[in-house]
Amino acid sequence: MVSATSTLTSLPSDLESIGSCAKAPEIDNNDPLGLRTKVVSDEQLVTLRSKGRAGRRLASFYRGQNKRIRQITQPVDKQATEAQEREDASRLPVRIAVWASLVANMSLCILQLYAALSSRSISLIATAVDSVFDIGSNVILLWVHRRAQNLNTRRWPAGGARLETVGNAVYGSLMSAVNLIVVVESVHLLVEKYAEGKLMKLHIPSLVAVAAALGAKMLLFLYCLPLRRASSQIAMLWEDHRNDIFINGFGLLMSAGGSKLIWFLDPLGGAIIGCGVIVTWTCTIYGLYRTLAGAAPSPAEVDTIIYHATTSSTLIRKFRSFKVYHNGEDYTVEIHATVSPETSVAEAHMSASELRHRLEKLPRVDSVLIVLEPDVPSPCAQLPHSHSLVMPSDCKEKFDVS
Question: Computed over its alpha carbons, how large is the radius of gyration of the chain?
Fold first, then answer.
């Protein structure tokens, strides 16, 4: 069923030319499968990197495997504690980022509306339209986030994880729709003014206003950069600030170019800005819809969950199926396992409860569904994905590979 062959079983042969592996540490309760014995020492990695290009690639591979092993074998309680500490530490910075973005967008909207109306530059109009809708989008994000935290669980049993993702998708859709209008207007101006070919009048105050907006967006972008992993709301604001840097910077250049160099640079700049923003938000929306549709997380995160599931109960004999998929921003885990026919209902219930509580402590695991049944002959269910989970041969009997 699952590929339980270790990707590091060939480690000694890979490193044979540079000496034997370091002495294996004793197996402890936090590492019952002895995965840490497969960690390659720093000295061996340094020696590998000195072997040329192939050695550097091999050292990079083992460095990634070391990181993966340490992540997998980290105790659940420690992972839960660290995740809670990160959330507590980022709570105030996240609030500052949200409100600073809202206040800044309101102030910059006035500046950019002035710049667009006074210069009548389509490139600056594109920046102004984006700025106006930034305010509405920020309000939507803030409202959806608060709504997701206080949903009525009777009406919404799944909680607010999906609602927040839906709000982010609506935010991106609005930004794409607005910029589609800008693209259409830019093409219209290109066709309408083709015969005239006149340069626009350079309006210095408008360019100064947009430059001020560009500087403010750069500061917000840098502030949100380290916080984007802490909250999906901040991740969306970070993407918006990143896009605005491109929009304002490029719009500033194309507006000035349309006034001093070639007339069609200004409408062309508006069209390019609109197309660029549409492509960027379309990619973001695609990722959000994948999480709503139940896409699987990365193999490394799935391996961590599988490892803790296989090492947390001695009553479970085999795992018939194992599913991990997105439920909005977080994950849902479904396990179908078997126990000995002699196991009592009370013991099976206690084992399933302990396993569920253990897995729900892992970061981003929202809910766990466990089905236990007697180990009797039945059709095998295949795991939805193959994994390169590091696992010694003495654990293979836990998986129904017949």
Answer: 28
How far is residue 211's CA from residue 298's CA, in Å, rounded to a whole number? 40
Which structure tokens are listed for 375?
């180990």
Would the pLDDT of 394 be above 70?
no
Pick the CATH number of 92-292 from 3.30.559.70, 1.20.1510.10, 3.90.1300.10, 1.10.10.10: 1.20.1510.10
CA atoms 374, 380, 382, 386: torsion sign: positive
User: Within the chain, what is the greatest distance between any pair of CA atoms?
Assistant: 90
Split at pLDDT 50, 70, 90, the class of 76 is: low
pTM greater than 0.70 (yes/no): no
The token pair that represents 294 in the structure block: 């139940």
Ranges in the chain annotated CATH 1.20.1510.10: 92-292
Please check whether residue 301 is in contact with residue 324, taking contact to mean a CB–CB distance below 8 angstroms.
yes
In this prediction, residues 142-159 reach a mean pLDDT of 73
Q: Which of 4-18, 104-118, 147-161, 230-244 has the lowest mean pLDDT?
A: 4-18
74: exposed, middle or buried (C-beta count within 10 Å: 0-12, 13-18, 19+)? middle
Query: Cβ–Cβ contacts within 10 Å for residue 66, how many?
Result: 18
Give the 3-state secondary structure of residue 374.
strand
CATH 3.30.70.1350 holds for 299-398: yes
Enumerate the CATH 3.30.70.1350 domain ranges in the chain, comma separated.
299-398
Tell me the C-alpha distance between 179 and 163, whole Å: 25
Closest C-alpha to 294, from 158, 148, 141: 158
All residues at 6 or more sequence positions from 91 whose CB lies less than 8 Å from its CB, including other chains = none
Q: What phi and psi values does residue 349 have, to the nearest 5 degrees?
A: -65, -45
The CA distance from 370 to 334, in Å, is: 6
